[in-house]
Design brief:
1 helix, UPF0473, alpha+beta, DUF1292 domain-containing protein, 22% helix
Length: 97
């Protein structure tokens, strides 16, 4: 088991990015990276559980020692801004189809 917050795994499909996150008990869970957003100079990742696509998490992405770290978003206004930006992205994608 890794001491890192997450390990990037080899994607099963070329367009699929999968990360393994450890919960507070150290249990690994696989998540698909469904979107990356940049908002006000900060990068965010939207993840969905591989086994339960309704289980979606949003993290702030930072880089420490050449490794990406997913951090929980504590500020409710910041989280709402990211959710709004993601919903806008989804709307734009639907308009293009």
């Amino acid at each position: 088991m890794s001491d890192n917050l997450f390990d990037v795994l080899e994607p099963e499909h070329e367009e699929s990015d999968v990360v393994e996150l450890l919960d507070e008990n150290g249990v690994p869970t696989l998540f698909n990276i469904i979107a990356n957003l940049e908002l006000d100079g900060q990068e965010y990742a939207i993840l969905s559980n591989v086994e339960d696509e309704d289980d979606v998490l949003i993290f702030k992405v930072t880089e420490e020692n050449d490794e990406f770290v997913f951090e929980t978003i504590e500020d409710e206004d910041e989280l709402n801004s990211v959710v709004d930006a993601y919903n806008e992205l989804l709307d734009d994608m639907e308009d293009e189809e």
